[in-house]
Write a structure and sequence with these properties.
The complex is a heterodimer.
Chain A (H helix, E strand, L loop, with lengths): L1 H18 L4 H28 L7 E3 L8 E3 L3 H24 L12 H14 L3 H19 L6 H29 L7 H5 L5 H19 L8 H7 L2 H26 L5 H24 L3 H28 L3 H36 L10 H4 L1 H14 L6 H14 L7 H33 L6 H4 L6 H19 L1 H16 L26 H22 L25 H16 L3 E5 L10 E5 L3 H22 L6 H23 L2
Antiparallel strand pairs in A: 1-2, 3-4
Helix pairs in contact in A: 1-2, 1-4, 2-3, 3-4, 3-10, 3-13, 3-19, 4-5, 4-10, 5-6, 6-8, 6-9, 8-10, 9-10, 9-12, 10-12, 10-13, 11-12, 11-17, 12-13, 12-16, 12-17, 13-15, 13-16, 13-19, 13-20, 15-17, 15-19, 16-17, 16-19
Chain B lengths: L4 H23 L3 H26 L3 H28 L11 H22 L5 H23 L3 H21 L5 H29 L4 H5 L7
Helix pairs in contact in B: 1-2, 1-5, 1-6, 2-3, 2-6, 3-7, 4-5, 5-6, 6-7
The chains are: A mainly alpha, B mainly alpha.
Chain lengths: 669, 222
């Protein structure tokens, strides 16, 4: 009931967004109401999870095709994702209250923002394939409109085009996947799909198509190409929604199909998913390391984190098929935990990037720097987000990656040789990705917020409006809370995964409340709570000691200037120089990176330059081949357009005679 | 009148005459000869329709026969004669395929239609069966003529020969309503009018009726 009211409110808000016109307070009102609606939906999800009734009542509405009805239902999984989606949604809306006045054209954004939220929520509560796909398309198109909001920019237009093509491709794959699952009876309601037995070939196709469909939306390599184009092209609070939340809806689709509707996915698909996840994580973070555009960097980091989650999902599938239900539950809990975490810190980081752009008008790392002093709130919250996404304890990112590692270490216990050999490889990829992610965010935060300003705009940065700062602060606090109280969350998550894996599993079973000991107490345990308490008490003790026994005399001195007396910003590390060692190690062969140095002759006045040329291997292998192929076919088919009338007739005649011959041969057999 | 052996043979004879005229059309090398042959085919078609009207006891088929006689055997050939003379069109038939090969292809098409129609209509009355095979052959021959002739007038004639085949099929099937035939007759007339206008425009601009000259002027082709 609450859900229905909030969803219709979002639809109504879209209309209001159209009517908002040029008056800024109306736009603010729309965003404010979006916040309320999102919070309501989040409360509904939390209430469902808290009451833990399993599956909610089904609601059937007579909309859609005449012989079909729309089925809606809230179960534990969708309630969890509803919380995730609307947490991000509420944050982005609240941020929008202050941010909307800084947009070049708020009228192109405000109407579609509620629609986007509506679409994502509708996907979650759909209980039949038809409604699911309609909502999915709704979500895609609404976000496409938001990507197009900056339509005067050629890069945005290209991003929108690539996004539209990929979204269409993804929905097509999902549609086919659902069609195969519905079987000959053509029953599109989810409860009917669950019971159907799928023959091996159909089963293979269903999983493959679901992976292509949901994976293209989530950004799995090699289907990620649109993501780093489209996510940064939208306004920052929409980028936060797309990166932090919409990718989660895609993962929801994947989990719904692989764990719930299909239910008997073979372990080899699990292994494949793990490998894809590992490649996605490593490639994603390598791309992120090479980016100078702050928002593009964050978008590539999303690709990495999706890879991490998919490793967890693949592991869960392999465990489930191998009969290790408890470990399957562990891997799935770890994956879901990372989904929640990523939704929070990626939203936070995109909002921080939005604040930086608002304050300086720059998103190029090479023109930022020294923002921490001028924007202390943004800087502090971004630091928390960067630490969390780099998986530093005691923040939330550490807990989920640690859990994924714990379940990964149990992978070789499965009776498949591929898993015994493959799991260490994926583990190494995950470790590499985690380390590179840390390097990536040290770079991003260090270059943008520390050091000296690299441009006039950065030097004149100003504080952003209150609503934006508070939103970021709340998200940062959530990062800390979810890191400090991991057991509370894993217990809630084990209720969600119970129907999907068939066992009730408590991650904290061995050692009790504040300790996570997923496998056994002797193999590894972690307590964010104890860590935070210890850290805090040490902090307090240190302060007391310093202030109690140390000197109180204040001494003033110059700050350390790294040996550079002159105040030239160019003498600092730049984004490019920071990542150069890693670029040389990893991308020379992978991205065919080549550096060319242009050194002026003695006496010449022009500056020396260093150019780096990189080729995206994924784009070249997968996309350029397809583009070239389509172009070639189009050229060939183009010839048919300029035939003589007689030849067209000849073609018709030959076709007719051929078909008549087929009929004649068939009936005379 | 009950269908006797005689009526059956007569129907076949006339139908075969229409088909023979179709072959003759393929064989002609002069434009006026083509028009005359077409008039002959239309005449045979009128006879076929009249005979069917007689043996099926279906007086409305007489109307079809009259339409075929009036429009196709008289007005259309005369009009085309007049057009050719008035426009001074080159009177040789330019073929895209040698006459001999065309004739052989035609024979193959007749074989194909017999092979096709006879098994399909195994349950239908014998009268309808054979006539349908003949009619289909005429249709295919008309199409063959359209693709093996280069100049516009013979293509128009091929198109109308194709229509003749359709009408032959329509009159052979018992109980076919008149509406269809009238519509077919009208479509032929409309087609002729359209082509007539078309010729005038070609004449004004290109001084020839060979279609290959027309194609080079089609805007986007260089």
């Amino acid at each position: 009931m609450l859900v229905a009211a909030a969803l219709s409110a979002l639809l109504a808000l879209a209309v209001l967004g159209v009517l908002a016109g040029a008056e800024m307070w109306r736009h603010r009102m729309v965003y404010f109401c979006c916040t309320i609606a999102s919070l309501t939906l989040m409360a509904a999800g939390l209430k469902h999870l808290g009451a833990n009734p399993g599956t909610g009542p089904a609601i059937v509405l007579p909309i859609g095709l005449p012989w079909m009805q729309a089925h809606f239902r809230l179960d534990n999984l969708s309630a969890l994702f509803m919380v995730v989606v609307n947490l991000g949604g509420a944050a982005a809306s609240a941020y929008g209250i202050g941010y909307t006045s800084h947009l070049p054209e708020p009228r192109r954004v405000t109407p579609f923002f509620p629609l986007f939220l509506f679409g994502m929520n509708a996907v979650l509560i759909s209980d039949d394939a038809f409604m699911f796909l309609v909502s999915w398309e709704f979500m895609s198109l609404a976000s496409w409109l938001l990507v197009m909001s900056d339509h005067t920019n050629a890069e945005s237009r290209r991003a929108a085009l690539v996004y539209l093509i990929m979204a269409t491709f993804g929905t097509f794959c999902l549609l086919t996947s659902f069609g195969l699952m519905a079987g000959a009876q053509g029953s599109y309601a989810f409860p009917a799909m669950r019971g159907i037995y799928l023959p091996p070939v159909t089963s293979f196709l269903v999983v493959l198509l679901a992976l292509l469909g949901a994976g293209s939306k989530a950004g799995l390599v090699p289907l990620h190409a649109w993501l780093p184009l489209a996510h940064p092209a939208a306004p920052s609070h929409v980028s936060a929604l797309m990166s932090g939340v919409m990718t989660k809806v895609a993962l929801y689709g994947l989990i719904r199909i692989l764990f719930d509707l299909h239910g008997h996915v073979s372990w080899s698909w699990g292994a494949a998913l793990m490998l894809i996840g590992g490649v996605t994580a490593v490639l994603g973070v390598l791309y992120a390391l090479m980016q100078d555009d702050l928002k593009k960097l964050l978008a590539y980091s999303t690709v990495e984190n999706i890879g991490v989650v998919v490793i967890g999902l693949g592991l869960a599938i392999a465990f489930k098929d191998g009969g290790e239900k408890t470990l399957a539950a562990l891997a799935l809990v770890a994956g879901l935990y990372h989904i929640i975490n990523h939704a929070i810190f990626k939203t936070l980081l995109f909002l921080a990037a939005g604040a930086v752009i608002t304050a300086t008008g720059e998103r190029d790392l090479g023109k930022l720097g020294g923002l921490l002093k001028r924007m202390p709130w943004t800087g502090a919250t971004a630091l928390v987000g960067a630490a969390a996404i780099s998986a530093l304890p005691p923040l939330n990112g550490f807990v989920s990656e640690w859990l994924i590692f714990q379940s990964l270490f149990k992978g070789p216990s499965l009776p498949y040789w591929a898993m015994k050999f493959g799991v260490p490889v994926v583990g190494a990829m995950l470790a590499l990705a985690a380390a590179l992610a840390a390097a990536c965010f040290v770079r991003a935060f260090g270059i943008a917020f520390l050091g000296r300003p690299r441009s006039k705009a950065a030097a004149e940065a100003h504080q952003v409006p209150t609503s934006m700062r508070w939103t970021m602060a709340v998200l940062a606090v959530l990062c800390i809370i979810l890191g400090a109280l991991p057991v509370t969350l894993t217990d809630a998550l084990s209720g969600v995964v119970q129907p999907l894996t068939g066992v009730h599993f408590a991650v904290s079973a061995d050692l009790g409340w504040p300790w996570l000991s997923p496998v056994s107490s002797t193999r590894g345990s972690y307590s964010g709570t104890v860590l935070v308490m210890t850290g805090l008490s040490l902090f307090v003790i240190t302060i007391l000691l310093v202030h109690g026994f140390g000197t109180t005399k204040v001494r003033r001195a110059d700050s350390w200037d790294c040996g550079h007396k002159e105040d030239i910003p160019e003498s600092q590390y730049t984004g490019q120089s920071f990542s150069q060692p890693l670029r040389r190690v990893f991308t020379t062969s992978l991205f065919s990176a080549r550096e060319t140095v242009d050194m002026p002759e003695p006496g010449e006045m022009r500056p020396a330059s260093l150019k780096v040329r990189m080729i995206d291997p994924v784009w070249r292998v997968f996309y350029q081949t397809i583009i070239d192929g389509v172009g070639y076919i189009a050229d060939q088919v183009n010839r048919i357009q300029f035939l003589t009338v007689r030849r067209y007739l000849l073609m018709m005649f030959i076709t007719l005679v051929f078909m008549l011959l087929v009929v004649a041969v068939r009936q005379n057999k | 009148m009950p269908i006797t052996q005689l009526s059956y043979d007569m129907a076949h004879l006339i139908g075969a005459t229409v088909l023979m005229a179709g072959f003759q059309l393929l064989y002609q090398r002069r434009l006026f000869a083509v028009l005359n042959t077409f008039a002959f085919q239309a005449l045979a078609l009128a006879a076929a329709a009249a005979w069917q009207a007689h043996i099926q006891n279906a007086p409305h088929l007489y109307v079809t026969a009259a339409i075929a006689l009036l429009f196709k055997a008289m007005i259309v050939p005369v009009a085309l004669h007049w057009l050719v003379e008035k426009l001074g069109i080159h009177r040789t038939v330019e073929t895209a395929m040698s006459i001999g090969w065309t004739m052989m292809a035609g024979v193959a098409l007749v074989a194909l239609s017999i092979l096709l129609v006879l098994p399909v209509t195994a349950n239908a009355a014998a009268l309808t069966r054979e006539s349908l095979a003949l009619a289909m052959s005429v249709v295919l021959l008309g199409l063959l003529m359209m693709i093996t002739r280069r100049n516009a007038v013979s293509q128009v004639v091929g198109f109308m020969a194709l229509e003749n085949g359709l009408i032959l099929a329509a009159v052979s099937a018992k109980g076919m309503p008149l509406v269809v035939e009238i519509s077919i007759a009208f479509s032929v007339l409309v087609a002729m009018t359209l082509f007539g206008i078309f010729f005038f425009r070609i004449r004004e601009r290109f001084d020839t009726l060979d279609l290959s000259d027309l194609e080079t002027y089609r805007g986007d082709r260089q």
